[in-house]
Amino acid sequence: MIGNPTTPADLLRRVRLIELRARRLVEDLLAGPYRSVFRGRGLEFEDIREYQPGDDVRSIDWHTTARTGTVQIKQNVEERCLTCLLAVDVSASGDLGSGPQSKRELAAELAAVLALSAVFNNDRVGLLLFTDTVERYLPPRTGRRQALAIVAAILNHRARSPRTSVRRALDTVGNVLRHRATVFLLSDFLDAGFERALRLAGRRHDVVAVPIRDRIETRLPEVGWLVCEDAETGEVLELNTSDPAVRHALELERVRRQAMLAEAFRQAGVGAVRCETGQPYQRALLQFFEQRQRCGPPPR
User: Which domains does the chain have, with CATH numbers?
Assistant: First the structure.
């Protein structure tokens, strides 16, 4: 079972295997897209001084200007180290895997790529595991050991609750991160009521959503009658997958949910990297970083 490897040796083998698969993509990201997109975006206040011709007017501190009677600007320095947090959904729906890879395993591999990219770039990276509550938090730190600990935590965690609350995870992100950070939110987003929390998080941090789906959720097999159980609620549903009306209704619901999620991301000013089990994610991830490199983050 993905959430409960049989031995520490088995867990170590899984972690090292994911690290090996992730390393090539990490090298591609560090060749340009990761560093240029996320390095140097944060600014740290250093001092206030009087305005001089040629200064950027956007740096004017209007409160100090009004108080002193002379135009003053803020001097900022580029942050030397980025903080990155991986918020990973470990609810029961993540154990779905119609092929050799479950959504949880894909999340762990994506987390490995992002965590290794961060630590190889001397950035801090942390982890927040959530269901309908926050179940584990690893504060941001540097170093390869931290990246591997993150992957091991995702693979080895046995969730205490089967349900999901993206809102509660985002609320906690707001509490544990005092300064602006890059937050990767990895989830299948089988949840509702998180839109406001996502907008608030998007104003304070650079949030990137990573919706993870299993291929059976997008292409229902035509196998006649099928008994389905919701992993999070326990609800059981019988479906005739060969009935065109049933297939049409399910497709309409899938499109509706996808459109609602895309709109939630758009309104929150949040970028998205959509990934699917059994499908190469490398291109989607690189395309996202390259697009951010060209265009910058979505407007807020």
Answer: 8-37+80-214+268-295 (3.40.50.410), 43-78 (no CATH)
